[in-house]
UniProtKB/TrEMBL annotation:
Residues 80-260 form the Malic enzyme N-terminal domain. NCBIfam families: PRK13529.1. This is Malic enzyme. Keywords: Metal-binding, Oxidoreductase.
Length: 512
């Protein structure tokens, strides 16, 4: 039921059909005279949009990649702001081409340039200045029902760091994937920015910055803002699901523990990433010609001990414990590195979340390894079956590291460069195949083209991005009416992916 009339409808992207309103509707809704007389069918509108998109592609050929991607994002964003029905139709039909524009990697560039790109607000903004007001503010949202919320505080946007209020692009992109991949009703999604300040000096000094210009709230002050937001959301929409996204590690873990048994929520970077990575790890076991149970025999080096890396380790160790029936030895195959190198029990001031994965010196001395050993030392000595990067550091899998993977104990070593966006990937697909050899199983967080290996051979690139999991988690939770989201649900999703061939090159098409 549309309660609006006339120009209000034309300015509402939920209901606007532009020139597509038939004459009967134009009369009923008070639109007669507000549109050119000719009625254009939905199919014609669709063709017109795609033609303008294609001519933009033609006209920007040869220009720098960032310029072209932003131009594509702008044309899609304008349609999103004008006519959501048409926007989601073109998005769904062209998801392979448009996902890298409305989602990773272009969304990262959009967040970095948000002040300049801003035309219309999308979603809701709760700031440090709204304390005590959130319960009434939540009723300002025009939709009666909201099913899916993606929430960020902008403190760790992809591998780009603290982008403050500009991080709103991430919830918007994630929710577009919910609509396109899981069929969630676009009128029931809500992107949210929790603006508690920023520690990004450049933004604080930027006159055009649109967020609260103060350092980030910390401690109890911070938590009281998130608490108030969660109470407000679940008071108005008790059946909603809240996805936490791109929170810096300390708050990612703390909020997950704080809310996971009280509210229907999950942290995508910790849990969604873990589900996708585990599916990939299990897929790699099979790609190497082994049985699934051989997963526990693999040596896996994880580079990055943040919310994502530790999430992956937690879920992988749980899976290994289940498969081997032995939780004592389940951490043995995993080697964890952070910015200070190999993490061992000798580490001073170890993060409690990383502590379970710290190596005993007695277990690694035989390999000639020590506390803080470098990545190249670890790869050379461990000869891992899998090298998995979630460090946010572009190029850290450099030539020497990749060449060392040729000596892996596996004839088909797996290299997962999962950091985003493209510039932050641990290596490119081309470098991986060039230096580590043609037999590798390669996956990356941001999309890369398949690699031409010559002689008609192709190095296949798989995408290991949590976008393959979170839409299904949200939809499954919604349909089942689950009250909370458990690790078991994430594990089941990841095992489903494994049995449905994550490493099939057509996988992404099949999924969509
Ligand atoms: N592909 C996906 O689906 C996916 C999902 C989540 C996160 N990510 C990406 O993973 C990256 C990390 O995310 P996060 O939330 O864990 O961040 P984080 O800031 O919590 O953790 C980063 C970790 O990397 C470590 N690190 C930094 N420099 C290093 C170096 N030189 N060598 C080894 N380790 C180093 C840090 O010590 C820290 O432990 C980001 O780029 C993010 O975009 C990808
Ligand atoms: O946003 C993405 O593309 C994946 C992931 O959530 C990330 O933070 O990098
Ligand atoms: Mg994320």
């Amino acid at each position: 039921m549309v309660h609006k009339r006339g120009a209000d409808i034309l300015h509402d992207p939920w209901f606007n059909k532009d020139t597509g309103f038939p004459l009967t509707e134009r009369d009923r809704l008070g639109l007669r005279g507000l549109l050119p007389p000719r009625v254009i069918s939905f199919e014609q509108q669709y063709t017109r949009f795609m033609e303008s998109y294609q001519s933009l592609e033609k006209n920007t050929k040869g220009q720098p990649e960032g310029v072209v991607s932003l131009a594509k994002w702008r044309i899609l964003n304008r349609l999103h702001d004008r006519n959501e029905t048409l926007y989601y139709r073109v998005l769904i039909d062209n998801i392979k081409d448009f996902a890298p524009i409305i989602y990773t990697p272009t969304v990262g560039l959009v967040c970095q340039n948000y002040s300049g790109l801003f035309r219309r607000p999308r979603g809701m903004y709760f700031s440090a200045k709204d304390k005590g007001e959130m319960m009434s503010m939540i009723y300002n949202w025009p939709a009666q029902q909201v099913d899916m919320i993606v929430l960020t505080d902008g403190s760790r946007i992809l591998g780009l760091g603290d982008l403050g209020v500009q991080g709103i692009g991430i919830p918007i992109g994630k929710l577009d994937m919910y609509v396109a991949a899981a069929g969630i009703n676009p009128q029931r999604i809500l992107p949210v920015m929790l603006d508690v300040g920023t520690n990004n000096q450049k933004l604080l000094e930027d006159q055009l910055y649109l967020g609260v210009r103060q350092p980030r709230l910390e401690g109890e002050e911070y938590l009281s803002i998130v608490d108030e937001f969660m109470e407000a959301v679940f008071t108005r929409w008790p059946k909603a699901i809240v996805q936490f996204e791109d929170f810096q590690m300390k708050w990612a873990f703390e909020t997950l523990q704080r809310y996971r048994k009280r509210f229907c929520m999950f942290n995508d970077d910790v849990q969604g990433t873990a589900g996708v990575a585990l599916a990939g790890l299990l897929g790699a076991v099979r790609a190497q010609g082994w049985q699934l149970a051989d997963f526990v025999k693999q040596k896996i080096v994880v580079v990055g001990a943040g919310s994502a890396g530790l999430g992956v380790l937690n879920m992988s160790v749980q899976a290994a414990a289940r498969m081997s029936g032995n939780s004592e030895t389940a951490t043995k195959p995993f080697f964890l590195l952070d910015k200070d190198g190999l993490v061992t029990k000798e580490r001073k001031h170890i993060d409690p979340a990383a502590a379970p994965f710290a190596k005993n010196l007695s277990d690694i001395e035989g390999l000639g390894l020590r506390e803080g050993a470098s990545l190249i030392e670890v790869v050379k000595k461990v000869k891992p079956h899998v090298l998995l990067g979630l460090s946010g550091v572009g190029g850290i899998f450099h030539e020497e590291v990749l060449k060392a993977m040729r000596e892996s104990d596996s004839p088909k070593p797996a290299i997962f460069a999962m950091s985003n966006p493209t510039m932050n990937a641990e290596c490119t697909a081309t470098d991986a195949f060039k230096h580590a050899g043609e037999n590798i199983v390669f996956a990356s967080g941001s999309p890369f083209e398949n690699v031409d290996l010559g002689n008609g051979k192709v190095g296949h690139v798989n995408q290991a991005n949590n976008m393959y999991l979170f839409p299904g988690i949200g939809l499954g939770t919604l349909l089942s009416g689950a009250r909370i989201i458990t690790d078991g649900m994430l594990q089941a999703a990841s095992e489903w992916y494994n049995t449905h061939n994550v490493f099939d090159p057509c996988f992404s098409v099949l999924f969509m």
